[in-house]
Amino acid sequence: MFAAPQRALDLFSQSYNCAQSVYAASGKGNLTTAQRLSLAAPFGGGVARHGEVCGALTGALMALGEAAEAALAADSEGARHTLYEQSAQLLEAFRQRFGAIRCHDLTGCDFNHPEEKEDFQQSGKRESVCCRVVAFAAEKAASVISIASAPDPDLR
Predict the structure, then answer these.
(1) I want to staple 20 with a disulfide (CB 3.0 to 4.6 A). Which of 16, 97, 99, 105 is the partner?
(2) Distance between CA atoms of 28 and 51, rounded to whole angstroms?
(3) Residue of 14, 22, 98, 95 lying closest to 59 (CA atoms)
(4) Is 115 exposed, middle or buried (CB count within 10 Å of its CB: 0-12, 13-18, 19+)?
(5) From CA 32, how far away is CA 24, in angstroms rounded?
(6) Three-class secondary structure of residue 111 per DSSP
(7) Which DSSP letter does residue 44 get?
C-alpha cells in the first residue's frame, strides 16, 4: 500500500471527513496540510452531507488538480485536457470498483438526517464502506500524481 492510503485512513480515524482525509494525504503542491483540510471540509458526505459525489473521490480530484497547478499555469489547454483525462480515469476506476460514485448510493445514508446518520454509525458502514473508498481514492490519486510527476525517460 502506498503511504497516501495509510495517511488518509489515519486522518479519517481522527474524525476528518473522507474528502479532507484523501486530499490532505494525497495533495502534492504548495499548500499545507492545514490548508488542504480546510479546503476539503465542505465536501464530506457527498458535498455538505447531501449524498452527491463521494467526498473521498472529490478529495482525490482536488489532489490531481493541485498537482497539475504548474502545468495548468504554463499550458492551460493541454494541461487541462490531461487533467480531465486523468480525472475521468479515476472516476471510472472508482465506479468499476464500487459500482457508484455518489455517497448516498455507496452508503445508503442521508447524513442530514440524524437518525440515518446514527444508524450508519452503528451499522459499521464507516469501516466497511468508507474506509475502503478512502484508501482506494488516496491510492489512485497518489498513483496518478506519482506517474504524472515522474521524469520523462525520453528527456534523459
Answers:
(1) 16
(2) 27
(3) 22
(4) exposed
(5) 8
(6) coil
(7) T
The per-residue b/e assignment along 89-101, b for 16 or more CB within 10 angstroms, e otherwise, is ebbebbeeebeeb
Rounded distance, CA 49 to CA 70, Å? 32
**What is the model's pTM?**
0.90
Domains of the chain by residue range: 3-148
CA distances 115 to 12, 64, 118, 120, 127, Å, are: 22, 35, 5, 9, 18
Q: Which residue bears the cell 485512513?
A: 9
Amino acid in the structure at residue 18: C
Q: What is the pLDDT of residues 95-151, one digit of tens each?
A: 999 999 999 999 999 998 999 989 998 999 999 999 999 999 999 999 988 876 654
